[in-house]
Amino acid sequence: MDAEVLEFDIGLGGGGSSGRDGDDDANIGLDVDEDMADSPAPSIIACNSNGGGGEIYLPEGDVQDLEPYEGMEFESEEAAKAFYNSYARRVGFSTRVSSSRRSRRDGAIIQRQFVCAKEGFRNLNEKRTKDREIKRPRTITRVGCKASLSVKMQDSGKWVVSGFVRGHNHELVPPDQVHWLRSHRQISGPAKTLIDTLQAAGMGPRRIMSALIKEYGGISKVGFTEVDCRNYMRNNRQRSLEGDIQLLLDYLRQMQAENPNFFYAVQGDEDQALISNVFWADPKSRMNYTYFGDTVTFDTTYRSNRYRLPFAPFTGVNHHGQPVLFGCAFLINESEASFVWLFKTWLMAMSGHPPVSITTDHDAVIRSAIMQVFPETRHRLCKWHIFKKCQEKLSHLFLKHPTFEADFHKCVNLPESIEEFESCWLLLVDRYELRDHEWLQTIYNDRRQWVPVYLRDTFFAEMSITQRSDSMNSYFDGFVNASTNLNQFFKLYEKALESRNEKEVRADYDTMNISPALKTPSPMEKQASELYTGKLFMRFQEELVGTLTFMASKSDDDDDADIITYQVEKFGEDHKAHYVKFNVLEMKATCSCQMFEFSGLLCRHVLAVFRVTNVLTLPSHYILKRWTRNARTSVILEEPASDVYTNYLESHTVRYNTLRHEAFKFVDEGSKSLDTYNLAIGALQEAAKRVAFATKNEGRTMMVNGRIRGDSARDASQANTINHKMPGQPLSEDDMDKKIRELTNELEYASRKCEVYRANLLSVLKDIEDHKLQLSIKVQNIKISMKDGL
Q: SWIM-type domain: from which residue to which, for each copy (predicted)?
């Protein structure tokens, strides 16, 4: 019987995926010269089993039922491969190229072997795995299957089957699952066109796959997986970027040429456009960081271009509570090494000063990079991204139990202590039977990085524990979107910067020209209204007015005599108390709610304690410069630039509280027995006489040429007594005491005088900075009016 020749007009078959699927990537080929066919040691070289990018040939008619047999002929090696792959699809297994032999004369391939994808066993290279831990071990897919098809090239140029092994040592895949096998996955021409269209519209792989499944009538009819789609889109992005990446580099070079303080960096070879990541920061962003760089938000979820490159802005919060920019990045590569490079580059642009805290999306790669670059910075995961992910991961639960979302939010946001949160969480997972839910357990393990009760001891510049950070994913809202290309992006980017700058200037103008309405006669409220920006004062005023409904009472469990603990409760809510520890001597208070540590503003609980202890003004260490009108000034003020009367109130408060604290201790000791009581009464009466005498004579004290003088006759008498001492005669003990008192008084006066001079100087500096700010506002208003006129 003559051998049957099958002619296939085809392109090379192969998977449409460039991703990995088990061990199918690792194929070894044997290239053996024709004259060395009997050689016992053929040379081994690497061989690619999925080299082609065309369509897989599927035989038609009766040919589909053919089974390979020895002697079957093909017009080409590619035809043999396509036939065996189509046979494998009908039977239910995947194929790959195993080995080949080459001619010694011209190096052409003269023999091929196609095998089942499960042929052989994984080659465990001990040298590669000995000294490193494999974080994500790949699935074992090779089980030593012997099924194969061998073909040899004849002198006529045709290829003939020289060997065929039918049997498999594993289960075969049923027809409704065969489309998952790698060698049978392909992206057809029409599917590529649809993917290109949807990708240009800003859709992601998941949504595109949903559209394809609906279009083709099922996943089995699509012919490829979401991984294949994702890889195809990634390759599309790389091809598209090759043209537009030059626009990015040209823009950055132009900006740096215009201003040498413009910073940009490229990971890769800029000259050859082999770029992995790009970072840039304009001079204003770098200056912003010097004033407001205590807390930073880094958001990689902001896809703002048609290539779906993560556009990652570094943002913070200014003195008006508005988002402010610290720099931007385009991430072409999202590997751990890329994030490490980005964070180090950003830190260098910000003069090497790491922030106190940083907020990012829930991502293990970013977390690892932050631990390497910012080991001392407190890392917080964005709570709102976790809530959004929760809606996706627990969608079935949201539909089944409408109350779950509210219960989840309460469990996360409302607990006042760690113990309360832990108890609430256990009740929640038990109530909804979620103890074994893998994703929920993952975020619970990370609770110290996103649940508010664990983060209150660190500054994040947020006005309340439960609010959403306004800087997260909002700086460029309304300017860039998913269909924005790179050419459009920078124009819209500059518009966003201009808009944000105008909003800050307007907030500065309102703060300087609109006096807030005071709601209490408290000197503290007036002081705050003159120091804080408008928005921050309103938030402080809310806390101050809130103290009117709170009662602060002294607790009995004080161990330290200098620190008094107060229990602060809202009227009618005795079951819910906060505890404030107040150091009278240092004028420092800490509250169990930790609002000051978290936001930089004092809570109503501490202010309630200040009210009952007659603290009339805010101590300087509770006024953060970053929240004041002068936040952007270069003058570093150790104390707020307040008037002399404010300084007097504060010093008077310190004296009052110190005396009262000592008096309490005196009363406790003096009342223990009748003898100590009598001694205490006598001491108090004597002290009262001395204080009354000092008060009476305080008004007569006058300064002459920097010297303290009392009654003129007494001064003259003292002067004569001292001056009539013989030269060289030692002073008496009384005269020495008087002289020491005089010098001490002079020193005290000089110190007070310096304080007055210092207060005046700070006031002048404040006026200069206010004047500069007003001029800046006028210039900005003129620019805006000129634009409107044009």
A: 582-614
Asked if residues 386 and 450 have their Cβ atoms less than 8 Å apart, the reply is yes
**Residue 702, domain member (yes or no):** no
372 falls within a domain? yes
CB 311 within 8 A of CB 305: yes
End-to-end CA distance of the chain: 91
Domain annotation covers residue 758: no
Tokens representing 57 are: 């040939």
**Six-digit token pair at 716?**
């003259």
Q: How many residues does the chain have?
A: 790
Distance CA 182, CA 228 (A): 10
Half-sphere exposure of 193 (CA within 13 A, CB side): 3
Could you give the C-alpha distances from 530 to 511, 516, 640, 764, 776, in angstroms and in order?
9, 9, 10, 15, 20
pLDDT for 654: 59
Of 102, 126, 120, 124, the closest CA to residue 112 belongs to: 102
Axis crossing angle, helix 674-698 with helix 644-670, rounded to the nearest 10: 160
Between strands 378-381 and 550-554, the pairing is unpaired
Residue 292 to residue 504: CA distance in whole angstroms: 14
In a domain, 785, yes or no: no
Question: Are 674 and 629 members of one domain?
Answer: no
The whole-number pLDDT of residue 692 equals 84
Residues 663 and 570 both lie in one domain: no
Q: Using N-to-C axis directions, what is the helix angle for 486-513 and 733-789, rounded to 10°?
A: 130
Other beta carbons within 10 Å of 145:
18
Residue 660: give the domain boundaries: 638-691
Given 634, 660, 683, the domain boundary residue is 634
Q: Domain check: are 265 and 354 in the same one?
A: yes
CA-nearest of 410, 412, 404 to 430 is 404
CA distance 534 to 528: 10
DSSP string, 736-772: HHHHHHHHHHHHHHHHHHHHHHHHHHHHHHHHHHHHH
For the chain (790 residues), the mean pLDDT of every run of 10, in chain order, is 37 36 36 34 30 37 67 89 87 87 85 89 60 62 88 89 90 80 79 83 81 81 81 75 72 90 83 71 94 92 58 91 92 86 95 94 92 96 89 87 91 92 94 90 94 94 58 66 70 89 92 92 94 95 94 77 88 86 90 94 95 91 94 57 43 62 76 86 87 71 39 44 47 74 78 69 68 71 67
Contact 571, 559 (CB under 8 A): no
Residues 372 and 460 grouped into a single domain:
yes
C-alpha–C-alpha distance, residues 628 and 42, integer Å: 80
SS (H, E, C) 520-539: CCCHHHHHHHHHECHHHHHH
Q: Does residue 616 sit in the same domain as residue 568?
A: yes
Co-location of 406 and 324 in the same domain? yes
Q: Which of 651, 666, 691 is the last residue of a domain?
A: 691
Helix axes of 205-216 and 189-200: crossing angle, nearest 10 degrees:
140
Choose among 226, 245, 66: nearest CA to 161.
Answer: 66
Residue 713's SS3 state is helix
DSSP 731: P
| C-alpha distances out from residue 59 to 8, 222, 345, 611, 695, Å | 8, 19, 56, 90, 114
Helix (H, G, I), strand (E, B) or coil at 613: coil
Task: Say whether both 458 and 558 belong to one domain.
Answer: no
d(CA 260, CA 264): 10
- The pLDDT value given to residue 543: 95
Beta-sheet strands, E only, within 521-664: 550-554, 563-570, 577-583, 588-591
Instruction: Say if residue 539 is in the same domain as residue 676.
Output: no
- Alpha helix positions (H), 293-382: 336-349, 364-373
What is the domain count for the chain?
4
Question: pTM (2 decimals)?
Answer: 0.61
Tokens 């460039």 sit on residue = 18
